[in-house]
Write the structure tokens for this entry.
Amino acid sequence: MLSSHRAVSLAAAAALLLTLAGCSLGGGEEPGSTGTDSGSSTGTDSGAGAGAASCVEDRTWVLDTDDLAAQLATQMSSGGMTVTESTAEGRQSIEFASDGTASASVDVTYTLSIDSGDGIVITVVQTHSGEPRGQWEWVGDSTTLTFSGWDNAGYSVQNTFLINGVASDSPIAIPSDTLGDTDMETTCSGDALSTHVATSPFTQHWIAEG
């Protein structure tokens, strides 16, 4: 039978992936990174071209949280775990204003259940909420964005995990300051935007609102 220590380890791994899923909006610098303040330009003055700028900027982008939950299940399954549930409820949005400011609104709950194969089901329920914001700019004439001065003070992560429906008494500390100071690759066409942060295993898909 799966030991309680192993169960907690699996729950911790699931919780970490859930944090990455929710925070991959701007997931922190890679080790050794010095940022990308060189050759960057703000807003529509970017060398990224009118196409990328007009597609991305001054629009409200709403995250496809169901798709992200599905990616989460795939990531866990690739590690040999049997995922029986991976869902998301709520809304996450972001705006890239042409004046160089970015603002996000996050209120999403992810639920992930793992069958250990030994009669133990581990469920992680994690709620991300808050309105982080900061500055953004294009990197040179690319379609890559970089963030700086990210204010994450109002962002929080509430984490609960259960083993066979019983809440564990072993808390897991979940970092809530993983946004900002990083690069985000973008692909934008019509009302569809895909973003990927180098430090995240996930690609986020967004739909323009309105």
Q: What stands out?
A: The mean pLDDT is 82.
